[in-house]
Write a structure and sequence with these properties.
CATH class of the largest domain: Alpha Beta
CATH superfamily of the largest domain: 2,3-Dihydroxybiphenyl 1,2-Dioxygenase, domain 1
Radius of gyration: 18 Å
Distance between the termini: 38 Å
CATH architecture of the largest domain: Roll
Largest sheet: 8 strands, mixed
Number of strands: 16
Number of domains: 2
Strand content: 25-35%
Order of helices and strands: EHEEEEHEEEHEHEEEEHEEE
Number of helices: 5
CATH topology of the largest domain: 2,3-Dihydroxybiphenyl 1,2-Dioxygenase, domain 1
């Protein structure tokens, strides 16, 4: 049962939303204007390609959030098809949303309406990290991971008939590029191309961020734990 949901954001539980928001602002990310649909502190930043939602709520973990106007109907269809929802808010007075949990700790959140205008994402300039290339999630079983993400409409361009063992899998949907990496951890990694490394280094030194060399790239960790992997080209 594949969905036709519109990707909205990478949603991250954020213990200190002020610290996280300051971190992204320092690197040149654009803060977006949000609606009042959330009942807790919530902020969104963008690099011009994807949005990162900072949620000051006790979420079970990071998730990819999608928009579907008939979220309640989708929740009922998924349950009827044998899927177990991790959480749901579908009451008459609720802002409708539900969470679907998959392998390796992956989560999908489906909400009834966007919490910010996607046009703001397109208008945001690239930060010092450069534009994002993809979101990476760790996945011990790539076949199960691919099956799960197909629910949200993501598809792989790989040759399914190939007998070669895979260490990673690329999946895509409109406005979203997702990489599942067998060797990856539970923490989301955002890959960025064309980083302005000298400016990033100066910003990291000025504000006390740790910038670490990792082979062919550099990494910087946001206060809420998101890993930013920076490549020069």
């Amino acid at each position: 049962m594949a969905g036709h949901w519109r990707f909205l954001e990478l949603s991250i539980p954020t213990p200190d939303i002020v610290a996280s928001l300051d971190f992204y602002r320092c690197l040149g990310f654009t803060e977006l204007t949000t609606t009042d649909a959330r009942t807790y502190p919530y902020a969104v930043v963008s690099d011009g390609r994807i949005a990162i939602g900072l949620h000051a709520e006790d979420m079970p973990g990071p998730a990819l959030s999608f928009v579907q106007t008939n979220a309640a109907n989708w929740a009922r269809q998924l349950e009827a098809a044998g899927f177990e929802l991790e959480s749901q808010r579908l009451g008459i007075d609720d802002f409708h949303e539900f969470t679907l949990a998959g392998p390796s700790g992956h989560r999908v959140i489906v909400i009834e309406a966007a919490t910010f205008s996607p046009m703001q994402v397109q208008a945001a300039p690239a930060p010092l990290t450069g534009p994002s290339a993809h979101i990476e999630l760790g996945c011990g079983d790539l076949a199960k991971g691919e099956e799960f993400w197909r629910i949200a409409g993501l598809e792989s361009g790989d040759d399914e008939d190939s007998d070669e063992p895979r260490d990673m899998l690329e999946l895509a949907a409109p406005a979203l590029r997702l990489r599942l990496a067998r060797s990856g951890g539970a923490t989301p990694r955002l890959h960025f191309r064309s980083a302005l490394l000298a400016d990033v280094e100066a910003t990291a030194e000025r504000f006390g961020f740790a910038l670490t060399r990792r082979g062919d790239h550099w990494e910087i960790v946001a206060p809420e734990g998101t890993i930013l992997a920076l490549y020069l080209s």
